[in-house]
Amino acid sequence: MLKISSLKKLVTDSMAVDLGTASTIIAVKGRGVVLDEPSLVAINELTEEIVAFGQEAADMTGREGRDINVLAPMRGGVVGDFERTKKMLAHFVKVAKTGGSNISIHAVMSMVSDVTHVEQRALLNAADDAGIGKVFMMEEGLAAAFGAGVLPTDKRASAIVDIGAGTTNVAVIAKGSIVHSTSERFGSNQINEVLATHLRRHRGLQVGEETTEHLKTSFVTAFLPDDISRATEVRGRDVQSGSPSAVEVTTGELYPIVEAIVRRIAETVKDTLTELRPEVAADIYDRGVILTGGGALLDGLDQYMRSHINLAVTISDDPRWATVNGLVKMFDDPELLERVARNELGALQNAEVPFEA
Ligand SMILES: Nc1ncnc2c1ncn2[C@@H]1O[C@H](COP(=O)(O)OP(=O)(O)OP(=O)(O)O)[C@@H](O)[C@H]1O
Ligand SMILES: [Mg+2]
Predict the structure, then answer these.
(1) Do 204 and 342 belong together in one domain?
(2) Residue 188 has pLDDT above 80, yes or no
(3) Pocket test for ligand 1, best of 24, 140, 188 (most atoms within 8 A of CB)
(4) Are residues 253 and 170 in the same domain?
């Protein structure tokens, strides 16, 4: 006969949650990544009710009906709109659950390293409302490093640069601990912003998010393109007349716009790497840096970074999933989890809910 404790194990999900500015990614121990959706909600303006989450909400972006508004409740890597983040997280956790309403969940979540107390509390409360019994929080940089294949036992240092939608996080790791880190609240989304601003101010065209995202992911490059006259048509709304319109842009025209943001990211990395102790610097000199996060997928970014910081630069496997892959690994190593979890946060949590592993 099964003992109570093993029965409990059968009905517990060990969930890794990367609640990002652009995407929420959830992995369950033993099942891998089970959810990867945009961190978006669609709101009915009249009733204030949420009518869609995630991909379904994203599909409404820019073309929503008069009363529907699509918004991102997470901003710059932290909870921007508390109520809606809570509801969104609860929805995603429900979808990601193995099945059956009485399955208990414990989770590991990541947070930006310079998170404030208020921001931390908001995340924990959101997790609590989502029905997560026990939450461990750990620094995003550490999770991304483990996900990118850095071993917690490795004595020598590794440098991981996570370029998300709203944050850029540089973490230097040795022996499973962060020895140095910086976190900036800007990221790949700024590229969309500068592209939209450029088109509006210099080409008189207002464009939507879908358009800038398409330009970023399939037209522009971080490294000076070989053919600067390659052109594409961009459609939107004429600033003067308000009517539907289009302009032609070239890779050469957009390159300096994008480069300004890419340079800022590279400068952040460079500055961080000048603050290391000599032994740590020597390790990084040998090993270079690893890029993670969706922002790392920008065409030519690794090449740009390599020439800017004069070190080897590699992109991890599945860069968008590096953080969640690192988080889910924690369930295989409870001692490590215990050590890296930000324990002082435990006090903020609902103490009545025990960890039933
Ligand atoms: N192929 C691509 N080329 C360029 N950028 C890309 C590509 N694919 C995704 N991105 C960008 O990566 C970003 C999303 O990355 P990611 O999912 O790591 O962010 P996040 O974890 O939600 O954000 P954060 O960590 O800042 O909270 C978006 O800005 C997206 O536009
Ligand atoms: Mg992220």
Answers:
(1) no
(2) yes
(3) 188
(4) no
